[in-house]
Amino acid sequence: MNKLIVLFFIITITFFNCDGRKNKNDTLKESITKFKDSIKSTEIIKYFPEVYEEVETDTILNTGFHVKIKTFTNMKQNVLNEIIIDTVHYKYYYRNYTNKLEIFYNEKLIIDEYFSKSNFRKDEDTQFWNDALLGGFSLEDTNADTEHVSIIAFFCLIESEDCKEYKIIIDKKGNKTTEEIITESIH
User: Fold this and answer.
1) What mean pLDDT is predicted for residues 160-181?
2) Cβ atoms within 10 Å, residue 161
3) Which residues does 61 contact at the CB level (< 8 Å), separation at least 6?
4) Residue 156: pLDDT above 80?
5) Domain chopping of the chain, boundaries
6) What percent of the chain is predicted at pLDDT more than 90?
7) Rounded CA gap, 67 and 169, in Å?
8) Please, what sign has the CA dihedral across residues 123, 128, 129, 130?
9) How far apart are CA 81 and CA 91, in angstroms?
10) 3-class SS at 64?
11) Is the pLDDT at 186 greater than 60, yes or no?
12) d(CA 157, CA 168)
């Protein structure tokens, strides 16, 4: 008889414990899911540079050339880099640059042009050109002579060391040629 009472007691306790309640793990998973669904993703937008920038260089060479380079932020052209971490969507816009190049030879204007990456873009490497930024122009004065002057333009992918360099060679009549500078990788 004692066995029967103990058995009845165990069955009764078991029956009352199986009332359909959720265990801790199920409740926690459900709470996390509800929380994640209730959070809207946050979007953070930044521009680099944030404001207009302009740099001018004015160089007079003893070869008869006078070179003016104006590099400025193109506020309408940029390259987007998107990063998503959890519920935060980062949008980083890197503004492109444009260069104005004025070259005089013996005080006569021979070049007055604007340059952007569209002047150098090649169809065979469209992904590079879509993501690259024009870094700027610099005067190559080591090879300057009385017949020509050279300008170096470089383009780099954002947050990368993948770059391309070009040399613009301008003669004293204003004729220009552009060639890519191929450098050996150190890696």
Assistant:
1) 91
2) 9
3) 67, 141, 144, 149
4) yes
5) 42-181
6) 51
7) 12
8) positive
9) 6
10) coil
11) no
12) 21
Residue 187 has pLDDT above 60, yes or no: no
Tokens linked to 171: 């003669």
Residue type, 23: N
pTM of the model: 0.73
User: pLDDT confidence of 184, banded at 50, 70, 90?
Assistant: low
Residue at 137: amino acid letter: F
> What type of residue sits at position 177?
T
Q: Phi-psi category of 61—alpha, beta or left, where left has phi over 0 and alpha has psi -120 to 50?
A: beta
Q: Which of 5-9, 58-62, 174-178 has the lowest mean pLDDT?
A: 5-9
Cβ–Cβ under 8 Å, residues 131 and 157: yes
- Of 100, 107, 127, 120, the closest CA to residue 164 belongs to 120
- For the record, the structure tokens of 27 come out as 């409740």
What is each CA distance from 50 to 66, 79, 100, in whole angstroms?
A: 32, 14, 21
CA distance 161 to 155: 10
Q: Let me know: does 61 contact 145? Beta carbons within 8 Å.
A: no
Only one residue has tokens 């879509």, namely 130
**Class at the top of the CATH hierarchy for domain 42-181:** mainly beta
The pair of three-digit structure tokens given for residue 88, joined into one six-digit string: 């935060």
